[in-house]
Amino acid sequence: LFIDHPLATGQPVMLEAAQAHYLSGVMRLRAGEVISVFNGRDGEWSASIIEAGKRGGSLELLEQTAPQRDPPDLWLLFAPIKKARTDFIVEKAAELGAARILPIQTDFTNSERIRQDRLQAHAVEAAEQCGGTYVPGVDELVPLARLLDGWDGIRRILWADEAMAGPAQTLAELPAAPWAILIGPEGGFSDAERSRLTALPFVTRISLGPRILRADTAAVAAMTLWQAMLGD
Ligand code: SAM
């Protein structure tokens, strides 16, 4: 369970109604049972349920059971698509160990707005599901051009480009660096965006194979490849 609270032995933690309902109504846990909690900073802790009901509840923190693991140094830049598929991308990015998720506005992006708080809640849920000790932050929507203007170039951008001919570059040959995977919108990038990305020295293009994938599939495929080759 994710709790936004400092973790220390003996400390009581008050639960929000939704968290208490998750423990009692969904997981069918009762007072006295022990669960795992994390806050994204202090590793994994065991905690005993003092009370969990419809209106809220509380826990008592017991001890640290696993140290904090640093998130892998991978970001995901993607252009939001339809609501359910954007939710899917955020959920899978959290599962696949993205440390930061940046929704971007591109020339052909359909969504002008996102519900950042909802997407962040999806990231929390996904991190809880897969037993992570950190939750990736989900940024507000930012125009790609502005993001590139301020990019420091130390973090390299891995641009999944369907127009890239030939087999995928071996990811194992990529320089060891912090990376950000870039996935375009359903309509792809505009010519202007393609020219700019191609000219930037810190951008590397990769192919995900000969088939054109939907943006959500491409995001999952690229993050899986990266984790398989470069994740630790
Ligand atoms: N521009 C294309 C078009 O309209 O025909 C399709 C864009 S594709 C649906 C959405 C995004 O997924 C692309 O911008 C790219 O980042 C990624 N993508 C899809 N297939 C890919 C592939 N085979 N290799 C690399 N990236 C791919």
Automatic annotation (TrEMBL):
Its EC number is 2.1.1.193. It catalyses: uridine(1498) in 16S rRNA + S-adenosyl-L-methionine = N(3)-methyluridine(1498) in 16S rRNA + S-adenosyl-L-homocysteine + H(+). It comes from the Bacteria. It is found in: Cytoplasm. Residues 71-227 form the Ribosomal RNA small subunit methyltransferase E methyltransferase domain. GO terms for molecular function: rRNA (uridine-N3-)-methyltransferase activity. This is Ribosomal RNA small subunit methyltransferase E. Keywords: Cytoplasm, Methyltransferase, rRNA processing, S-adenosyl-L-methionine, Transferase. Specifically methylates the N3 position of the uracil ring of uridine 1498 (m3U1498) in 16S rRNA. Acts on the fully assembled 30S ribosomal subunit. The keyword Transferase applies. Residues 16-60 form the Ribosomal RNA small subunit methyltransferase E PUA-like domain. GO terms for biological process: rRNA base methylation. InterPro entries: Alpha/beta_knot_MTases (IPR029028), PUA-like_sf (IPR015947), RsmE (IPR006700), RsmE_MTase_dom (IPR046886), RsmE_PUA-like (IPR046887), tRNA_m1G_MTases_N (IPR029026). GO terms for cellular component: cytoplasm. Belongs to the RNA methyltransferase RsmE family. It is an enzyme of class 2 (transferase).
